[in-house]
Design a protein that fits this description.
The chain has about 110 residues and is mainly α. It has helices at about 5-20, 30-55, 60-80, 85-110. The chain has one domain (about 5-110). The chain is built from four helices and no strands.
């Protein structure tokens, strides 16, 4: 089940790259939060890779990643229900994070 860590790492690192390299916003505050989010995603992506190679540290560190992935899923559902994000964004961001969150929680419960 440790493969889910590689999936989480790829999701985070790929998402960070998209945030960094997508067309630059004209609003400096938006860019600040976007880049901060990209940095946070990169740190967590690297943490998942570390945990893949050092499974003895999965407990308790993966709990934070699982909680954050679950939060991403929940806020995506809320924003979609309020029609503030598209169905595509719900699937690309919310559903993918929800699936990985479920995988992380399952991995934690079975190790």
């Amino acid at each position: 089940m440790s493969w889910i860590l590689l999936v989480g790492a790829a999701l985070n690192l790929g998402g960070a790259a998209v945030l960094i390299f997508e067309p630059r916003a004209t609003n400096g505050e938006y860019t600040l939060f976007k880049w901060f989010t990209a940095g946070t995603a990169t740190v967590f992506g690297c943490l998942y890779l570390f945990l893949y190679w050092h499974a003895e540290y999965v407990h308790p560190f993966l709990v934070f990643g699982a909680a954050l992935k679950a939060w991403a899923f929940v806020i995506s559902l809320v924003l979609f229900s309020r029609r503030e994000i598209s169905g595509r964004r719900l699937v690309e961001f919310g559903a993918t994070n929800g699936v990985v969150a479920l995988g992380f929680w399952t991995y934690l419960a079975t190790t």
